[in-house]
Amino acid sequence: MKKTMMSTYVRLLGFAKPMSRYAVPYFFYSVLHALFNTFTYTMIIPIIGTLFSEGYAFTPTYELPAIELNTECLDGVINYFYTLIFGTEFMTTRLLALLSAILIMCNVLSNAFRYLGSMTVETMRTRTLQRMRNEMFDRTMAMNVGYFSDQRKGDLMSKITSDVMVVQFCITNTLQVMFREPFLIFGYVAMMVNISWQLTLFSILYLPVVALIIGSIVKRLRHPAKKGQQHMGEMVSVMEESLSGVKAIKSYNAFSYISNKFHSINASMSNILLSMARKQQMASPMSEFLGITAISVVLVFGGSLVMKGLMTASGFVAYIAAFSQLTRPLRSFIDQFANINQGIAAGERIFSIIDAESSVQDREDAVALEEFKDKIEFNNISFSYDSSREVLHEVSFTVRKGETVALVGPSGGGKSTLSELIPRFYDPAVGEISIDGKPLSAYTQESLRAKMGIVSQDTILFNDSIRANIAMGREDATDEQIMAAAKIANAHDFIMQTEAGYDTNVGDRGMKLSGGQRQRLSIARAVLRNPEILILDEATSALDTESEKLVQEALTSLLEGRTSVVIAHRLSTIHNADRIIVIDSGRIAEQGTHSELMARNGIYAKLIEMQSLA
Ligand SMILES: Nc1ncnc2c1ncn2[C@@H]1O[C@H](COP(=O)(O)OP(=O)(O)O)[C@@H](O)[C@H]1O
Ligand SMILES: [Mg+2]
User: Fold this and answer.
1) Phi/psi at 522 (5° precision)
2) Cα-to-centroid distance, 146 and ligand 1 (Å)
3) In the chain, what are the domains?
4) I want to staple 32 with a disulfide (CB 3.0 to 4.6 A). Which of 5, 113, 301, 352 is the partner?
5) Minimum-distance ligand 1 atom for the alpha carbon of 567
């Protein structure tokens, strides 16, 4: 194993902490399992010996007991039933029955310990996976917003589900290999040496050849496994996209487009899986074939030892039984190398998620933003999503505490982008945004966002009750507070009309609500937070004129005394803003109050004119 692979592996095992809680009991269960298992096969010797009279068979030393003489003692009762069942071949049969009973008992014990051992592994497996998934999820959620492209979403989903599955077999199977199989192998080998060291020596020289051949077949599995995972990620993202876009697909009769897309990814993934399976499935027949060949060779060599009188026939039979058993742990030992490779490949992908660094970081000396006192300053901001095209170019302006600043302008101009820089969803490439003279990165992201209420164009609701959706991030809110917030957002009435009121489930992404209702819930969410800084990005765009009027009133009273950045699609709603900034193609085209801008007769005046015509 290469060094990096080793460290990945050790790190994966780290998720199984505390390892000792599982490894110690597993160790004991495995030793006991191996002990009783080997013993089970040892029982073959006296059994066969008895049948072939190799000195184990007893000549009856006394006559068939008179039943009346012995009924008092337990032995007599047992004798009586044996006599009934087995008839006159009493002594040999009794010995055989006794040996079989011991055989069964050993086997029961051996399997009981195996069960206990397996359950230890299962517990470890389940807990490890639980910890791993949680960590991946939490780390992912902590990433910067820009990290989540659509392509990456599918990739992440596939990693959190299927890669974790691959890793689990790697971790738990290696535990079995390290703590169980060696004991079994040791037990069998000890037994075999005891029967015939010559034959054992022969087998030991012989087995590595078999192992090497199987190993080389299994080795080539890692590469296609990686490619298979990649395709899996693509498939999941197409699936996710199609499921959430099912309405668009149907309304545009785009079924064949999306279905072709899915089918072609599915086909190339299947081909990879098939080529993987081909190699994988080859491993089993090959190793079985080699195993049988190995046994045959042993059969010939061992047979000659029996002929020469160097080994008893019963010993030979037991030897073959043990030898055939030996190939199993030995084979799984070898098979694990393939698993370890696959597991480590998956582990590396998992760690690529866990180790991903958010590009939006708190500075090391970041402090909590205790109180917003003075102003938010945009200082010469330039920004681009991908380095190819600038979305914002040298934007500078100031929002004083208590002011309402409106951003207007043609769509695609960069208004939403600009507003998303304030809670640090993204960091500008050039320039700096500061609050009270200190750059945003000087404050912890959590304290920064705690001061803000954001209502955006696309409302994000979760599959939960209306109450939980409003209280999001404020789990301590009382029912009265939630209701008051809903009333301000003009949502209370429609909520009361739903079947279960505040307990009504909103469905997946709020599917069961209308666009306007969803938007009012997200306004209620912001109201409940009672934030010092409000960011409204076309917060009323999905409302009909009637409810917009009502929500607008609510928002106006909400804006009172707060600092806010408002992006409005309907310009009539921002007449009263302290300042209006017109953003066009990522630049500030003009700014001023409504009347100043009207007098200027520029872009703003033109936009107003267009809207009043409409
Ligand atoms: N997540 C994103 N990734 C890449 N480009 C984006 C992203 N979001 C917006 N854009 C681009 O940035 C530009 C400004 O978008 P946006 O800020 O939403 O404009 P506005 O809100 O003024 O309509 C647009 O050209 C848009 O295509
Ligand atoms: Mg926008």
Assistant:
1) -75, -25
2) 12
3) 15-354 (1.20.1560.10), 362-451+533-542+564-614 (3.40.50.300)
4) 113
5) 21
